[in-house]
Amino acid sequence: MKDLVAAYISGLCIVHCLLTPVLLALGGAGLLGHWLEAEWVHYVLITPILLLVGWSLPAARHRHQQLWPLWLGCGGAALMLLSLAVPAALEPWLAISAGVLLMAAHLMNRHLLQTMAAPAAGPIQK
After folding, report:
1. What is the pLDDT of residues 62-74, one digit of tens each?
2. Mean pLDDT, the chain, as a whole number?
3. Distance between the two ends of the chain, CA-based, in angstroms?
């Protein structure tokens, strides 16, 4: 469940990065455009993303023994943090890339955990 929530929040970040420039370019976005562009929105989105990366991926790594979800998640989190410190023209590109990495990490993690939980198919008994 944590991984699905984390993937949805990462997707919300991607949608935010894609919609904000479009709304601002169209003009008339008014209060919504001003709100989407506000710096605090970035911190509201990044906080649960980082918490879920730290909570979900390391613990699951010990269960399924695969490093890829953890590496992808750490790379995505690093890019997400970096996106807050770069010029505004680069921010959406880094944040979108980070969101894609984070979604992939959490969905891969979920898949690995579900694969472990699924009972092995044994011989059919009559």
Report:
1. 889 999 999 999 9
2. 84
3. 36
